[in-house]
Amino acid sequence: MQSQNKPVNAAITAVGMYVPDKIMDNKYFESIVDTNDQWIVTRTGIKERRLMENGATSDMAIFAIQDLMKTSGLKAEEIDVIIVATVTPDMFFPATACLVQEKIGAKNAWGFDLSAACSGFLFALQTGASLIKSRQYKKVVVVGSDKMSSITDYTDRNTCILFGDAASAVLLEPTDNLNFGIKDSLLYVDGTGKEALYMKGGGSLNPASYQTVDNKWHYIYQDGKAVFKVAVKGMADISYEIMQKNGLKGEDVAYLVPHQANLRIIDATAERMGISKEKVMINIDKYGNTTAATIPLCLTEYCRDGKVKKGDNLILSAFGAGYTWGAIYLTWSFD
Ligand code: UT7
Q1: Is residue 233 in contact with ligand 1, taking CB distance under 6 Å?
Q2: Is residue 257 classed as helix, strand or coil in its secondary structure?
Q3: What is the pLDDT of residues 180-192, one digit of tens each?
Q4: What is the pLDDT of residues 1-33, one digit of tens each?
Q5: Last residue of a domain, one of 157, 175, 193
Q6: What pLDDT, on a 0 to 100 scale, did the predictor assign at position 5?
Q7: Which of 294, 298, 260, 255 is closest to 277 using CA atoms?
Q8: Are residue 161 and residue 192 in the same domain, yes or no?
Q9: Please, is 283 exposed, middle or buried when counting C-beta atoms within 10 Å of its C-beta (0-12, 13-18, 19+)?
Q10: Ligand 1: distance of its center to the CA of 159 in Å?
């Protein structure tokens, strides 16, 4: 029992995921744009990604949460808060969280969407953890869900090979054993990044019109080289910084759980942290960049493979559009 005045940590106590069945491999991209498997694998590490053919971001989020509920025994009525990290909401409003709440039957929950692109899951996790630490809420579901195919230009080889569709969710609950749960976070935004990675159309600045559609402003634009330069430094630095701040050495970290945008960025981050490749969660080869879903997708897969143990120290880190970036240090709370 938690006494009323004792501090609590927020711990991840359950995980769930959904990836659509339809696979788009590198061969498929060779048939639609001027690219090749070797370029994609060596420059990014991606071999396949998934495509949500029927359904939207909310549907994937629902499937991921239902998977979490099925495997953990969590009941929909027990959920206090639903936070959906996404840059591909079903609509501007209502929030995707409302659509998810209704479909899963979480009749006692409130919730909202959080937009921080590839850092969305980390920002949402920290927000959810703060709600738990406030002691006002006991069960917060954080889901990263992005249907990137809905904003991808499949004639642009610079971007179309990178992204995939997926959703993944975690449950946050309070623990009065402060050896477990989320222990620290470092999160940042820097709006100067707005020129390098964006979707220009559809918002209040450029409302949808024939012109915005003709100009392809409803698709992702990315200056890959510019983003790469800051992402590779940003993600490595922040991951190292959170280790330094918490007195952690390479051997104290069981896993780096990195955003899956580019294997070269991930490798550089692990190197800066002084940890070996076996201690890095990777699934970019199977799913590509699924934006807000990458980190919980890694957590779910590695957890289900029995690779994450109670007491393991994890460093989660991400870099994305905005710019947004950050790292979270947590100690895993279940086997
Ligand atoms: O998750 C959110 C944050 N995003 C990121 O972290 C992504 C960061 N950026 C990257 O991961 C990399 O910049 C990319 C994977 C997007 C691109 O890799 P790169 O090594 O930076 O390539 P580049 O953009 O410098 O392009 C090199 C060449 C260019 O040709 P030229 O100008 O040298 O003739 C491109 O046109 O590769 C060409 N290219 C391609 N070739 C074959 C670009 N895309 C492709 C492609 N297939 N799909």
Answers
A1: no
A2: strand
A3: 999 999 999 999 9
A4: 455 678 999 999 999 999 999 999 999 999 999
A5: 175
A6: 75
A7: 255
A8: no
A9: middle
A10: 8
pLDDT at 302: 98
Q: Are residues 192 and 119 in the same domain?
A: no
For 151-182, write each residue's pLDDT tens digit: 999 999 999 999 999 999 999 999 999 999 99
DSSP 188-245: EE-GGGGGTEE--SSSSSS---HHHHHTTTTS-EE-HHHHHHHHHHHHHHHHHHHHHH
Ligand 1 centroid to 263 CA: how many Å? 13
Of ligand 1's listed atoms, the one at least distance from the Cα of 224 is: 13
Whether residue 307 is found in the same domain as residue 273: yes
Q: Tell me the pLDDT of the chain averaged across its residues.
A: 97
Pull the structure tokens for residue 154: 């499949």
- Cβ–ligand 1 distance for 118 under 6 Å, the answer yes
What secondary structure letter does DSSP report for 155? Answer: T
What mean pLDDT is predicted for residues 246-270?
98
Domain limits at 133?
A: 2-175
We report the CATH number of the domain holding residue 13 as: 3.40.47.10
118 catalytic per annotation: yes
In the reported structure, the alpha carbon of residue 40 is separated from the centroid of ligand 1 by a whole-number distance in angstroms of 9
Average pLDDT over residues 204-229: 98
C-alpha to C-alpha distance for 60 and 7, rounded to whole angstroms: 34
State pTM to two decimals: 0.97
Domain shared by 115 and 188, yes or no: no
> Considering 122, 156, 175, which residue would you say is the last residue of a domain?
175
Do residue 164 and residue 220 come from a single domain? no
Atom 25 of ligand 1 has which residue's CA nearest to it? 225
Residue 280: DSSP 8-state: B
Domain count, the chain: 2
Assess contact for 94 and 71: CB atoms under 8 A: no
- Identify the residue whose C-alpha is closest to ligand 1 atom 27: 225
- For residues 86 and 141, membership in a common domain is answered with yes
- Could you report the per-residue pLDDT of 68-97, keeping only the tens digit for each? 999 999 999 999 999 999 999 999 999 999
| Pair 114, 216 in one domain | no
**39 Cβ closer than 6 Å to some ligand 1 atom:** yes
What percent of the chain stands above pLDDT 90?
A: 98
